[in-house]
Specification:
Layout (H helix, E strand, L loop, with lengths): L1 E6 L5 E7 L1 H4 L5 H15 L58 H17 L3 E4 L9 H11 L4 E5 L4 H6 L6 E5 L5 H6 L2 E5 H11 L1
Parallel strand pairs: 1-3, 3-6, 4-5, 4-6
Antiparallel strand pairs: 1-2
């Protein structure tokens, strides 16, 4: 079992906690992480850009004037792409950018991302934040005591004081264990787990 120190708000070691080898000491494969991150980012794309083609534009299909004898170029209808307000040629159409990655690969990528944090000494555990009120400065002081910058905080509880205190701090994000994902794990330099969240993570990925 891998072990990591449990720190308090002042950055002092108060105990030690064991981490599951099946989750935190998995060999890391960049190709698997790449596939899952690519899937996550693609899923965020809206794909709602759309234009009206000639058949979608409202208007008459009547020929504007006779074919010959007017001196004008031949013209079929008011919805022609060559005319103002006409249809658009080869414009974007509504589409989905989503592509699937199976559940086993998703789970494996999550384990690899957590393992990379542990192996690179970027994983830290805190016993609790103990915020009695919404206070941004207090949370900043805690991260400063731990020596952490650009940090992702994972908690298993709905800690309103913690979530609201973190809102205006750049390069810091608080997330519940249910929302833990590969992209955010790799985006932030350090991972800070509230001790109670370890059991929830291991239960989710076991």
């Amino acid at each position: 079992m891998a072990a990591v120190d449990v720190l308090n708000r002042s950055g002092e070691k108060v105990s030690e906690v064991n981490l599951s080898d099946e989750i935190f000491t998995v060999p890391v494969k960049k190709s698997v992480l790449h596939d899952v991150v690519r899937m996550q980012l693609a899923s965020r794309r809206s794909g709602t850009a759309v234009t009206k083609g000639r058949s979608d534009v409202a208007g008459s299909t009547r020929k504007l004037y006779r074919q010959k004898g007017t001196g004008n170029a031949r013209s079929g209808g008011i919805k022609s792409p060559l005319r103002r307000g006409g249809g658009v040629i080869f414009g974007p159409v509504q589409r989905s950018y989503v592509h699937k990655v199976n559940k086993k690969v998703m789970s494996l990528a999550m384990k690899m991302a957590l393992s990379s944090k542990f192996q690179n000494h970027e994983l830290f555990v805190i016993d609790s934040f103990g915020l009695t009120q919404i206070k941004t400065k207090e949370l900043v002081n805690v991260t400063r005591n731990l020596g952490l910058k650009k940090v992702l905080i994972i908690t298993s509880e709905e800690d309103r004081n913690l979530f609201l205190s973190a809102q205006n701090i750049p390069n810091l994000k608080v997330m519940k264990t249910e929302g833990l994902n590969v992209y955010d794990l790799l985006k932030y330099d350090n991972l800070l787990l509230v001790e109670s969240s370890i059991q929830a993570i291991e239960g989710r990925l076991a």
